[in-house]
Amino acid sequence: MSDSLPLRDRYLALIDEIVQTTLKGKISSVEQVYQMLLKGVSSGTGEVFELALSDRLAAAQSLVDSEKDELKKAKATRSLRAIKTIENQWQRTQEQNKANNAIASAVQEISKDTGDRLAALLRVIDPNRKYPLNLQQLGQLAKSLQQVPENQEILQLSEGITRGLTSWQRLSDNLLGWMYDQNRSSIGFGGVPGENGPWASWEKTVNSPLIQALFHTLAMDASLSEFAQQQRFITDSDWVELTVVLQYLQRGLVNWFDQQAYNVKAGSKLSISTFLTFAAIWNQLANAFASITRYSNASSQVLLQILRNFAQRPYFPLYGGIFASFSGSYLRDALDYLDEPLRQAEGTQEKARILTLLGYSQRAMGQYDRSIQFHQEALQIARNAGDRPCEIANLNHLSRTYVATENYTEAINNSQRALILSRQAGDRTGEANALVNLGYSEVMQAQQLKQIEPETYEMAINYLQQGLKLSEQLGDIQSKALCVSSLGIAYLVTEQPQIAIKHLEDGFNTAQTSGDLYLQGLNLANLAEANYSMANFTRAIYTGCLGMYLLNQIASREWRKPAALLTILQGQMGAEAFSGALQQHRPKIIAVIGVDGYDYIPQLLEEYKQSM
Questions:
Q1: What's the rounded Cα separation, in Å, for the pair 478 and 190?
Q2: How far apart are CA 422 and CA 23, in angstroms?
Q3: Which residues of 383-407 are buried (b: 16+ CB within 10 A; e: fewer)?
Q4: Fewer CB within 10 Å: N-end or C-end of the chain?
Q5: CB-based contacts of 107: which residues, under 8 Å, 6+ apart?
Q6: How confident is the model at residue 501 (pLDDT cuts 50, 70, 90)?
Q7: 3-class SS shares of the chain: helix, strand, coil, % to 5
Q8: Is 217 helix (H, G, I), strand (E, B) or coil?
Q9: Per-residue pLDDT tens for 271-297?
Q10: pTM
Q11: Are the C-beta atoms of 38 and 93 separated by less than 8 Å?
């Protein structure tokens, strides 16, 4: 084939050459076709080749369709088959070119970011990119980074990727083994610390001391702050290895659970659990490494990537189930990162869902104005994107947040709109939440107006009971947790503490199942109040201390409510009797928040007293 021919003619000749060589039996594999294309098509001229290939494909198809002679038709069919092989291998070369370009671009991006190359690496391996790197390409990136001349920082990143891929390979062979351990009744992440759950199983598989230490900490449900304090000599290479392993663990589990649609023990419930678990781990790592800013920022960066990926899933929970704690620069970074999807029309729905989550989190933290701002923005985006479940969810969240600000008129209005829309759209989960929020809003408004007529509360409680019944029919744990919690508060408001305690205890247990820390803390705080009203002071101390600690851990201002009650109890009982009552419940408290949590309770009470 002469290089002096015009480019299009040269590519037509290349296609003809491959076809003729194939027909003569001189090409025995598609790999040879692939190599001929790599050699014959010059970089940057793919469009010209595709036009030539399209012409030959159309001509061959036309000949097959019109040829009447059997022998000639058979030959034309073989030619058409050969051209389709060229087409398939050309697509393969294009994919490889995209990968090569992505890797070259990644190396360039990491090399030029002299401020924080670790953050640059995390950006280029983000699974939410248009062309995310697969395992093989990540390995190629590590090799390409090794070629950057005389840069120790970049070599550390390369080494970390290589080590991470090696550790992941060992783990991938035993990814699901822990599910089939003898006598294991559950395949979730819960269980007694130290048992043969996933972390303990994976700890035995890896060789990396850092990853072993992290897995051991998670297996024992111990403090990640202590884990971080022990990592005095951690390097970028160690951190990248840890990041790669955790990212692929999460993706591997989610991929497997997503394929178990008909498995009653798995399916989307465990996919959600996996996203929540790994998001929580990265959130804790961000806090634990607060003294090492770049690692704390890197943890937050990975957390955001997980949330964004999670938001694209059809089972993303619109009614809580996760606590995303963002403040200051982290919140700005979150919003900057989440603005990226808005550059493409299909990304708007994704941002609305994450803003829904952020709004929920801000309400839990007591940032009501910010919560309302997020939910209103999410509401508008969801409405424009035609995401009706998300629109209804944000109306429900707005109702709940307006209750927190004692704006009961707006709370009732939003819950009524959510109820109407949910029934029109057939959104049963939205309807259950709307019923609960409507009943809850009306109870709180009646209390504010000092209405004592029984029928006022009966109608509101009827809405709550309808919501509870619907959530139970749907098997929606998160909605049920909200329902029974709201019923408990309603009975507390109407001075029926014994009935309130029953619902609040059910609410706490259900919130534990759904993983909603905010609802857990609120139920415990209200249980403390209910027990106090019945003069069950020891039980009030137990529930109050737990509620205070959990709410404080998620930076919710509402931790001060049980702290105030506990301070009153301490004054009434005396410090010694109060301490004895707390000690009496030590085993049960440790079972929920650990030894560190128990030891922190007196300090937290002291913080409250000093702030009064």
A1: 17
A2: 63
A3: eebebbbbbbbbbbbbbbbbbbeeb
A4: C
A5: 141, 144, 145, 148
A6: very high
A7: 80, 0, 20
A8: helix
A9: 877 887 888 788 889 889 989 989 999
A10: 0.69
A11: yes
